[in-house]
Fold this sequence. Notes:
- 2 copies of one chain form a homodimer.
- Chain A has helices at residues 9-23, 31-37, 42-49, 52-72, 80-97, 99-107, 116-134, 142-162, 171-184, 199-215, 223-237.
- The first copy, chain A, is an all-alpha fold and 242 residues long.
- The first copy, chain A, has 3 domains: 8-50, Arc Repressor Mutant, subunit A; 57-184, Tetracycline Repressor, domain 2 (Orthogonal Bundle), CATH 1.10.357.10; 199-237, no CATH class.
- The longest helix of chain A is centred in the N-terminal third of the chain and has 21 residues, at 52-72.
- At the A-B interface, helix 6, helix 8, helix 9, helix 10 and helix 11 of A face helix 6, helix 8, helix 9, helix 10 and helix 11 of B.
- Chain B binds a DNA duplex (30 and 30 nucleotides) through helix 3.
- Chains A, B: Residues 7-67 form the HTH tetR-type domain.
- Chains A, B: One of its GO terms (molecular function) is DNA-binding transcription factor activity.
Amino acid sequence: MKKGGEPAPKTRLLRAAAALLAESNGEPVSTRQITQAARVTAPTLYHHFGDKEGLFDAVVAEGFSEYLDAERNLSASGQPIEDLRMHWDNHVQFGLDHPHLYLVMFGNIRPERRPSMVASAEAFLEEVLARAAAAARLVVSPHEAARSMLAANVGVTLMLIAEPAAKRNLELSAMTREAVISAVATDSEGDPTTDTEGTPSVVVAAIALNAALQSSHPDQLSSSELKLFLEWLQRISTRSGS
Amino acid sequence: MKKGGEPAPKTRLLRAAAALLAESNGEPVSTRQITQAARVTAPTLYHHFGDKEGLFDAVVAEGFSEYLDAERNLSASGQPIEDLRMHWDNHVQFGLDHPHLYLVMFGNIRPERRPSMVASAEAFLEEVLARAAAAARLVVSPHEAARSMLAANVGVTLMLIAEPAAKRNLELSAMTREAVISAVATDSEGDPTTDTEGTPSVVVAAIALNAALQSSHPDQLSSSELKLFLEWLQRISTRSGS
DNA sequence: TAGCACCTATAGCAGCGTTATATGAAGTGG
DNA sequence: CCACTTCATATAACGCTGCTATAGGTGCTA
């Protein structure tokens, strides 16, 4: 197709648009800036992409296919639930790495005219969830699960993007991720052979019990026993690893 | 201040902007449309609001205070968890009722310059959650819980707005809502004022923890401690009255 | 050489947000 | 009743935007 000499105008337009979109921090980028940076005049842009939005869609599509590729090379772990976590984190990371692209993809939501890749992201997630369902780990349909997970994932990512990079706290992501996953999937007991860290479920259960005990003291334990019990429970509830 | 005769230009601008924003389905609304609809010329707009965005902020602020008022008149149920559900649903409903406003508020997220009401929405939710925490129903700090809930809430609402109104399935909202709430709060099998027993949930939690501990032994407890802990757990798991 | 696609450039339109400047109206002190 | 400030509105225009009607190369196939 092309030697290394100089990319075709179409490519230059794509790169210039991507670069300017990345630099100018969320503010709109004009077609004139883009065409000038690509050393090209306006009609060239419209000849190749028909539209400013067409160009942006193309830019997004490029970044998005890169994202999807990364996802595809990700999900071979064999543990469906762990795959879900990885995809969630990958989604968030993609949003933080390419906030401009991400906002175009998910922030600019208009009924109709919404980038088709949102749908394909949903489809892909649904595929991963179907595998989880096949392993009898899902408690709802993959379709519903995918929508719920994607919605929460987008919400979290938008919120993280919105706040200054310094103050970002990924705990928000991890917490919401676990919330949605645990609502959608069974808590994957069962297969400890390969599982080195089943701790999350223990922690969750410990927290639950701890909370339950706050409102009702069981009479099966003496008060001194209960005191020590609660102390241990507290210790378990504080996850050490991860 | 004003008779019923005719509103002041400032008011007319606000109303015209709100109306046009509502009608024109997500497409941008120009200042010229607005000023013309308000039977006013451009400088009047800039005199009163300084900016197009200033005008839009004012419009959003109006709708948002209405929303916040509705929320405030809502949260007197006395049951913190049920309050959370109501606020979640109210949030979603507001988004579906005023999608244009909603998108300006939560969709247009740019670092800096983001409408201050997002912060106040978060603060308000945190307030509700603080009440839940006071009732010992929270398993995380109200701050974190508020951020997580709001993120998921926004994500769900955006997704619902994005899809055609006919196809909207509020199940997505309910499902995600329960997921986040149950991750953030204890499941508080209703113990209203009368019944302070609540043993079932304790038993259930104990059983869950017991089960979880079977597959993964925490390293926070020594083996002898764990032995006694499990014994007590076993005792708690056995209902006294059976 | 002619014809034909394809790609790019010149020049310009209508619309946008915004503003420098000027005019009107309304209250206040002399 | 007049000067005076103060606020609110209007005229006209600037620089920018996305976009395009039209025309001019360029390289291929015949």
